Amino acid sequence: MSTTDEDARNREHREKMARRKQARDKILATKTEERGLVIVHTGKGKGKTTAAMGMALRCLGHGFKVGIVQFVKGAWNTGERRALERFGDQVTFKAMGEGFTWETQDRARDIAAAEAALEAAAAMVHDPSYRMVILDELNIVLRYDYLPVAAVLALLDGKPGSTHVVITGRNAKEEILERADLVTEMTLVKHPFAAGVKAQPGIEF
To answer: How many Å separate Cα 184 from the centre of its chain?
Structure first.
């Protein structure tokens, strides 16, 4: 390619990017509202909790306080719990689940654990010192009807205006999706479990 052709290509690129920036700036100028969001990570693919913990790290990086309630993984010694607890008073981490329902095999016990976790979550959500509260695997306990969806919707409706609430877990209820401001569905394309690879520290927990 000649120097003349390369100069023309670079000039065309600059002009294209300038037009794109102008259009983008025009759109951004209309986005003036700032408020706490309800965020849902759902779907059959891996990464729902991982994405939520990444958002927690962003908040912590800005000096915000974060609360985390795990509705299912309480029985697991997870890497995210170890890491986030190092932030001291900036993070409140409550691992309150007792494992998946097929592990406990006790519906009454699972319901009691879910109710206790929701109570802890409500205390965080109603405390305006928390900028973000993560309700990890809440969708799981809602799917099994261990908690009424109405109770969760009431909690979301009563949260302080600047508080972000992140809900994770597959099979999110339609009512939760409708209430959410941001919904991401993780799609399963390929998973090593199907090839006989077990869950590993740093990847699954």
So the answer is: 9
| 59 Cβ contact partners less than 8 Å away, ≥ 6 residues apart | 65, 66, 131, 132, 164
CA nearest 125: which of 115, 116, 133?
A: 133
Residue 64: what pLDDT?
97
What pLDDT, on a 0 to 100 scale, did the predictor assign at position 201?
80
Is 135 within 8 Å of 167 (Cβ atoms)?
A: yes
Nearest to 163 by CA among 25, 5, 35: 35
- Residues 100 and 12: beta-carbon distance below 8 Å: no
Residue 101 has pLDDT above 60, yes or no: no
Q: Can you give the pTM of this predicted structure?
A: 0.86
The Cα–Cα gap between 68 and 136 comes to 7
Residue with tokens 């941001």: 182
Strands annotated E in 137-195: 164-168, 182-185
Calpha distance 149→147 (Å, rounded): 6
Q: Which of 57, 37, 10 is nearest to 163 (CA)?
A: 37
